[in-house]
Amino acid sequence: CLxxxxxxxxxxxxxxxxxxxxxxxxxxELALRxxxxxxxxxxxxxxxxxxxxxxxxxQQEAGDSSRRSLMAATQQSVSRLEPSAFECIxxxxxxxxEACTEEQNYESA
Length: 109
What we know:
By secondary structure, the protein is mainly alpha-helical. Helix content is 65%, strand content 4%. It has helices at 2-6, 24-31, 35-62, 67-76, 83-102; strands at 18-19, 22-23. A two-stranded antiparallel ribbon has the order 1-2. The mean pLDDT is 81.
C-alpha cells in the first residue's frame, strides 16, 4: 500500500487500497505490530523525503539563481498526496503508535 500511496497516479482523486478482495491497509496495520515492519515503514518514509529533497536541490542548481525560479523549485518540492494516500500513511503510523503503546514502548512511539 506504500507503493500505491507514493506512486499514485496523481490523476485519480481516490487510490484503491484493495487488491483481489484484500484490504491492503488492514493487512499492513496488522504487520506493523512487528518491529522490523515498523523500521521498514520509517525507512520508506525517510527515503521518500530524501529523494524529494535531492530532486529539489538538483532543480535549484540547474536553474538560474533568480528568486522566482527558487520559489518555484521550493513549491515543487512539496509533496502532493491524494487524500486517500494521506489517510493510508496516517493509518499506518497510527498502527505503529498503537503497537508501541500495547508493548509500553513509549520511547519508540
